[in-house]
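Tutorial handout. Part one gives the primary structure; part two gives the three-dimensional structure as tokens.
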Amino acid sequence: MKIVWIDERVEAEVEFRSGVGFPRLRAIRFRDERVTFVGPARVETTAAGLLYRASGTRQRFTLRFEPRNHRWVLETVRDGL
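Part two.
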């Protein structure tokens, strides 16, 4: 398994559901490529915001949402599931 550190701002497609305290991550746009996630992401609370661990069809992604800045940051990409 190969892990690549990215730490780059991305555009995110999210869904806000009533009764849920955080946005549901659906997809991201990263370097002119749209990545759609399969299934729900695992969400953890950190001091800086929310940490999402999501899976695409061939890769796993770690993203950080910073609510104070309304910013999504792609932290890592792991090849292979």
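Part three, for discussion. Strands lie at 3-15, 24-30, 33-36, 42-45, 50-55, 59-66, 71-79. The first strand starts at residue 3 and ends at 15.
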